[in-house]
Amino acid sequence: MDPSTSPRGVALVVGAGDATGSAIGARFAREGYVACLTRRSADKLEPAVERIRKAGGQAFGYGSDARKEEDVVALIDQIEKERGAIEVMVFNIGANVPSSILEETGRKYMKIWEMAAFSAFLNAREVARRMVARGRGTILFTGATAGIRGSANFAAFAGAKHSLRALAQSMARELGPRGIHVAHIVVDGAIDTEFIRSNFPERYALKAQDGILNPEHIAENYWYLHTQPRDAWTFEMDLRPYMETW
C-alpha cells in the first residue's frame, strides 16, 4: 500500500491551528486516518504534522486560501487523488474579531464572513460532492456561541457564525438521508491556546481548575460524533467548561 494513503481514508481539517484543529487531526490519525491539515501558510503546519508523524500517524500539510473557490476545488482534487477518499471533513476556521457596530467597516465585515461562512460553504460543497457519490462521510463544523446569539461588539462574527449554523442545518437535512452525517459543534469558552495564555492570563489561570477547554478533549468529541451509528446521529453539540456562564 502507498505509505501516503490509508484504507481508512482521509480526515481533512480546514483551518488547523496550533490547538484545536491540530488536536482533531491527531485524534483521527491515531485511528489510522491520513490527517490532511490546511491553513493559509503551510509552514505553520509543520510542527503539527511532525507531532502526528512522531506519534506514528500519517499527516500532510497544505497551504490554501479557503475563501478562493479555485483553490478549494484544486485542493480537494489533489487530496482525493494523492491521499485517498475524504471520509471526514472538519471546518475549523474562526475569525473572532470584535468591533463596535459604529466602527465596523464593510471590508472587515465581508472578510470575517468570507473566513467563517463562505469558505465553509466552498469546502463543504466540494467534499459533499465526493461523499454523496460514495454514500458515506462526516462533515463537522466548529461553531461558537455567536452562532446562537449575537453579543454586543460582535456583529460581524455573529453574522458569520449564524450563517455557518444555517449552512450546517440545511446540509444535514439534505445530506443525512444520503448517508452523510453533518454536525455543528458550539464551542463555548476559552480554549487552552497561546493566544489565551498571552492575552488573557487571568482566564488562562482557570486551567488549573478545568475552567478552560482542553483541545484534546474537544477532539475526542469530534471523534465521537464521527463514530455515531446513523440511527442516533447528533446534529448539534455544545462544549463548555463546567464553570462557564451561559
TrEMBL record:
It holds the Pfam family adh_short. InterPro entries: NAD(P)-bd_dom_sf, SDR_fam. Coiled coil: none annotated. SUPFAM superfamilies: NAD(P)-binding Rossmann-fold domains (SSF51735). Signal peptide: none annotated. It comes from the Bacteria. PANTHER family: OXIDOREDUCTASE, SHORT CHAIN DEHYDROGENASE/REDUCTASE FAMILY (AFU_ORTHOLOGUE AFUA_5G14000), OXIDOREDUCTASE, SHORT CHAIN DEHYDROGENASE_REDUCTASE FAMILY (AFU_ORTHOLOGUE AFUA_5G14000). This is NAD(P)-dependent dehydrogenase (Short-subunit alcohol dehydrogenase family). The lineage of its organism: Bacteria, Pseudomonadati, Pseudomonadota, Betaproteobacteria, Burkholderiales.
